């Protein structure tokens, strides 16, 4: 029960940080919040599918806890990579736009 509560709190913060990222760069706020949550689930599912289809290991019922923990870490890594990528791309566009605006004012 406590693990589920912690995962909901974690997903809330993921959505919140993506929301703030979109707010800082004048993008769609709620869409980016949901994108952050969906990216966590996508990363988790991709890890499970990778283990299932591309490795030779057989998943026993006793290894499900270990697999869920590793898939949560993979989802977290996927969220961090997506967050950093979006932040880098949007910051670069914002910086380029500011430099273009300064050209005509000299």
From TrEMBL:
It comes from the Bacteria. This is Uncharacterized protein. The lineage of its organism: Bacteria, Pseudomonadati, Bacteroidota, Flavobacteriia, Flavobacteriales. It comes from Polaribacter reichenbachii. Keywords: Membrane, Transmembrane, Transmembrane helix. The chain crosses the membrane at residues 6-22, 34-53, 73-90.
